[in-house]
Amino acid sequence: MTHTTKVACVVALKSKRTAPKQKHSQTLSRADGGCSVGRCFCSLPKTAESAAVSESLLRVMALRACGLIVCRTLRSGSALKMGDEIEFLLLQTSYGKHHWTPPKGHVDPGEDDLQTALRETQEEAGLGEKHFRILEGYRKELRYMVKGQPKTVVYWLAELCDSGTSIRLSEEHQDYRWLGVEEACQLSDYKDMQEALREAHSFILNRQEPS
């Protein structure tokens, strides 16, 4: 006879319609040997050793995030000129200190960094891979401390295919803006993020052939 049990798990579930953290309950079979809920590290039976490993893995993953610096170019012609305006997308969080950042988020189990960046941009801004192209050659890592723990954020640079593409925010954000590089730097709270935006701006200009 199969015995079932209820397991309550706290998971970081990124979704347009859910808060960053929520509890879920799932009826599990002991014969299954674990929880089938995505992004969950529950297992039955759970030993102290396996619990410690799961907790350690979650802690490490929570300190690594990835995202896209999304830009759009308002061209006056077919080629980019110095007078054209390059704008960057910043999202304002709906929680905490309401920081302004590009779309980003924590790496989920089984994802690589770029997959995380693409997923987070889709979830937080409503922009899928069909809406932009990754500009190869730009990759920026930011490293800083969060509550005494080192955190790494990896950014790639993406340019919208259509500068008029609409942004669709998740519940994690309350506002967005398209801004020139210096305006974007003024809204950004962190020196490293300001440096990343300026480097992205220079990268876009330098990769274009002179007209």
From TrEMBL:
Family matches, as SUPFAM superfamilies: Nudix
Chain ranges passing through the membrane: none
Organism domain of life: Eukaryota
One record GO biological process: ATP biosynthetic process
Ranges where the Nudix hydrolase domain occurs: 61-201
Reactions accelerated catalytically: a 5'-end FAD-phospho-ribonucleoside in mRNA + H2O = a 5'-end phospho-adenosine-phospho-ribonucleoside in mRNA + FMN + 2 H(+); P(1),P(4)-bis(5'-guanosyl) tetraphosphate + H2O = GMP + GTP + 2 H(+); a 5'-end CoA-ribonucleoside in mRNA + H2O = a 5'-end phospho-adenosine-phospho-ribonucleoside in mRNA + (R)-4'-phosphopantetheine + 2 H(+)
Keyword Hydrolase belongs to the record: yes
GO terms for MF: bis(5'-nucleosyl)-tetraphosphatase (asymmetrical) activity; nucleotide binding
Xref: InterPro entries: NUDIX_hydrolase-like_dom_sf (IPR015797), NUDIX_hydrolase_CS (IPR020084), NUDIX_hydrolase_dom (IPR000086), Nudix_hydrolase_domain (IPR051325), Tetra_PHTase (IPR003565)
Keyword vocabulary terms for this entry: Hydrolase, Nucleotide-binding
Membership in a protein family: Belongs to the Nudix hydrolase family.
Record protein name field: Bis(5'-nucleosyl)-tetraphosphatase [asymmetrical]
Source organism: Acipenser oxyrinchus oxyrinchus
